[in-house]
Structures are given as C-alpha cells and as structure tokens.
Amino acid sequence: MSPRSARAGSALAVGLATLALVVAACGPDHPASATRTSPSARSTTPTTVPSTVPPTNAAPVTAPTTTAPTPPPTAAGLQVGPGTQAVYTVEPQRAPGSCHYRWVGSDPLPDPVCTPGAINPQVTQADIASTICRSGWTATVRPPEDVTSPEKQGSAAAYGYTGPFATAEYDHLVPLELGGDPNDPANLWVEPNDRPGATSTANGKDDLESRLRELVCSGALDLATAQQAIATDWVAAAARYG
C-alpha cells in the first residue's frame, strides 16, 4: 500500500471511532441531557405513614359506660345511729314546740321529721342470736337514767307535752329489743299514754315490740322488716302482726 493510502485509511478509522463514541453517549440508557445525582444528594424525605386519627366526619368514639351496682339499703332504710357506747352523754333535743304528734284514735305517733327512727349499727341480722335474742341483752346497752331524764324533759318541750311524766314514756321508736339505737335523738320521743284510766307508761306499743321480737328471733320475720314496720307506723304494724 502507498503512503497516501495508508494515511487515508488511518484517518477513516479515527473518524469511525469518534462517531461510535458520540452514538454511544446519545444512546437511550444515557440521555445526553440527563444529569447523574450522587447518592448523598438524593432526597431523604421519610415515607409518609397513614394516620390512625379517624376522619372528622367519623362517629365519635365513646368510652363504654358502667353502672355502679346499687348498694344494699341500710337496715330498714332508717338512719344509722352511733350505736352502743361505753359512756353515754346527754344529747341535745329539738327546739321547744318544733315537733308534733300524729294521732290514730288515742294512739300517738311521733313526728317523722323529729323522730324518724335510728338503728344500732352493732346489731345485724347475722348476730341477733348474741344480741337482741339473748336474754338480758338490752340492759347492757340502755343509757343510764341520769342521761335519759334531762333528755326526756327536752323532748317533752320539743313535742309540747304538758301531761304527767308518770304516764309518758321516753320511748325508743325502734326499740332496743329490735336493734334500735340506744341514745340517738332521732330514735327517742316522749310517748304519751292518753288511754282512759292510764296510770303508767305501759301501752300497746310495748306489746307490739315484744311480739315483733318473738317473730324475729324465731325466724318468722327478718329484722329489717320489723324495724321498718314499727318506725313507719307502729299502730298499723300492731294491726298487721298482732
């Protein structure tokens, strides 16, 4: 080959190589206009996690409500007094003239506001065998006379009682023998005995108290029912229980 031909061939080879590079650079895998981004320059925006908050138009979630169990009523639904005390003191009474008797024939009932009745919390249905049903028990819880005498005078003034004290009993509305509170003013009142020819404090309520105790101690009547009956209307209770 002549020198001239050799030079021409060499130039052609160089041209073809250059053309191949240009074509490769403009190929579909590496567009000429594309700019490579280094890994460190890539976006670090975190992937969005779907929210668990319900949409605003969703029904509100309401916590379940629970109804507290109804506590058992206090015995007979009566007031609960302080109970048996080692030392009793004179309790204050209602203002003079503030209490009023109710009458069923010749039988008196106490004022339900002044004397609603109160029970001894130390006497329950479970322990009647060792308390009210035990002979002589009431004497162990009865307040002394030096306490009840001034209380009786105060109660008489509250009820406007002006009759003889010899025929008026300072009465436990719920009697001690049925678990009445010994010295709570809510359970004590001056009970007149206005029956013709009365010479003592003995009256029909005393008979009812003994009868109800018999029924309770024999198991024929529960304690709370007996307490409720005599406190609400002892005259009606006497007609019912005899």
Detail the topology: elements first, then pairings.
Elements: H1 3-25, E1 79-80, E2 102-104, E3 107-109, E4 118-119, H2 145-159, E5 168-172, E6 188-192, H3 204-218, H4 223-232, H5 234-241
Parallel strand pairs: 1-4
Antiparallel strand pairs: 2-3, 5-6
Helix pairs in contact: 3-5, 4-5
Explain what the structure shows.
Helices cover 29% and strands 8% of the residues. The N and C termini lie far apart (154 Å). It has a domain at 97-241. Strands 1-4 form a two-stranded parallel sheet. Strands 2-3 form a two-stranded antiparallel sheet. α4 crosses α5 (234-241). The protein has helices at 3-25, 145-159, 204-218, 223-232, 234-241, and strands at 79-80, 102-104, 107-109, 118-119, 168-172, 188-192. By secondary structure, it is of the alpha+beta class. It is built from five helices and six strands; from the N terminus they run αββββαββααα. The protein is globular, with a radius of gyration of 50 Å. β2 and β3 (107-109) form a beta hairpin.
Rounded average pLDDT: 79
- Largest sheet, strands/sense/barrel: 2 strands, parallel
**β-strand number:** 6
Question: What fraction of residues sit in β-strands?
Answer: 5-15%
Helix content: 25-40%
Rg calculated over all Cα atoms: 50 Å
What general outline do the C-alpha atoms trace? globular
Q: Main sheet: which strands, in order across?
A: 1-4
Which class best fits the helix and strand makeup? alpha+beta
Distance linking N and C termini: 154 Å
Question: How many helices does DSSP assign?
Answer: 5
The low-pLDDT segments are: 2-56, 58-76
Order of helices and strands: HEEEEHEEHHH
